[in-house]
Write a sequence for this structure.
């Protein structure tokens, strides 16, 4: 029996520290493991050798700073995780292994007015199909990450009121999908998962404090503080779309007037351009036309950027993040929207907070949320169950 403070207990703790560091990063050199865990190079070398012999990790030659090194990653056969992202008009599913590699991924359109049961039916079919396509048995699934476009109650796990998926309010998405798939399901809103995705693989890499701003049918923010998603006690942290910009402005779906969302979300912005550009206009099309030089689309995107910048300035003054990552279709506008955001931040944020802030576009596009769902499972799973396993096969990298 292991006792606290015993040599065997300490060794077990060190094993789990190394596994945790590799699990969260995807792959690390032994020197990077030593730096991130605080363990000595000799201890890391011995632990990596033990984990490799047990089939938990794989070690491959690499280089770091021009010198030969060894890259350590979890065995591709140690298990698989699944990401499911329900959006305003899509369902995207990805299957990945513990070495941060995507094995299969697919996206299909979904009717936002469909019932929750129909959405879960389609998710169940797509998940099972992709797992089968990997050639790995369903018994290897460790968990599922699920993203939904609405606030999740931390205590009950139910989806709060949402105008984006109106037929889903009051449902318990995690419980429903877990019952269908027979594995643990971890649920979060799409903005938080977008933040996780960009933090691990995209424009947020290397930042310990950031805000991921997603502008689509609504406006939300995923907040990362000290490397962890901050959800708040009720799970509603990051509702930046409901910061009031104009008390006499348009009525928002939340019941207030002049929320940031009413000046930036697609449902409010597109009608400004539809009389001159047609009723089938989408935000992606607006961005494309703006990049091609359309003056009306450029003006609207610049205005949206300035409004977003006002909200970001409030975030700067309250949380002082080091980086803001803009996601969604709007990020494709590049400096056409990032420039105006920076202008507003410079004008309204405390100068010291504005100087420390980097504002960048997301690099993962529409995949940010589903990759964040994979990252959610990787962050929530325990390490003790990974201390053992077999060898895996090569697969395309997430990034």
């Amino acid at each position: 029996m292991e006792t606290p403070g015993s040599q065997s207990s300490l060794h077990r703790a060190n094993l789990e520290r190394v596994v945790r560091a590799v699990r969260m990063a995807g792959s690390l050199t032994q020197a990077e493991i030593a730096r991130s865990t605080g363990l000595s190079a000799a201890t890391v070398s011995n632990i990596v050798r033990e984990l490799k012999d047990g089939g938990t990790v794989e070690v491959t030659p690499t280089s770091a700073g021009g010198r030969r090194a060894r890259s350590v990653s979890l065995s591709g056969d140690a298990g698989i995780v699944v990401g499911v992202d329900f959006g305003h008009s899509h369902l995207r599913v990805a299957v990945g292994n513990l070495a941060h590699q995507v094995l299969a991924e697919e996206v299909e359109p979904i009717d936002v007015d469909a019932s929750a049961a129909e959405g879960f039916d389609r998710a169940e079919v797509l998940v099972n199909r992709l797992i089968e396509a990997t050639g790995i048995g369903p018994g290897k699934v460790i968990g599922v990450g699920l993203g939904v476009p609405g606030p999740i109650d931390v205590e009950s796990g139910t989806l709060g009121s949402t105008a984006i998926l109106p037929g889903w309010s009051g449902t318990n998405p995690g419980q429903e999908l877990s019952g269908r798939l027979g594995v643990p399901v971890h649920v979060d809103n799409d903005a938080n998962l977008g933040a996780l995705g960009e933090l691990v693989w995209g424009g947020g890499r290397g930042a310990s404090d950031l805000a991921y701003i997603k502008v689509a049918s609504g406006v939300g923010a995923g907040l990362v503080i000290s490397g962890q998603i901050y959800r708040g006690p009720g799970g509603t942290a990051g509702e930046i779309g409901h910061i009031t910009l104009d008390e006499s402005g348009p009525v928002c779906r939340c019941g207030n007037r002049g929320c940031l969302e009413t000046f930036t979300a697609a449902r409010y912005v597109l009608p400004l351009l539809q009389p001159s550009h047609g009723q089938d206009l989408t935000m992606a099309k607006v961005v494309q036309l703006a990049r091609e030089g359309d003056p009306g689309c450029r003006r609207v995107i610049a205005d949206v950027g300035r409004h977003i910048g006002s909200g970001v300035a409030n975030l700067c003054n309250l949380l002082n993040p080091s980086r803001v990552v803009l996601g969604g279709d709007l990020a494709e506008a590049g400096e056409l929207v990032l420039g105006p955001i920076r202008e507003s931040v410079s004008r309204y944020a405390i100068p010291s907070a504005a100087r420390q802030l980097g504002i960048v576009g997301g690099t993962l596009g529409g995949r940010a949320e589903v990759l964040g769902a994979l990252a959610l499972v990787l962050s929530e799973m325990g390490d003790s169950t990974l201390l053992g396993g077999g060898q895996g096969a090569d697969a395309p990298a997430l990034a």
Notes: Confidence is low (pLDDT under 50) at residues 388-396.
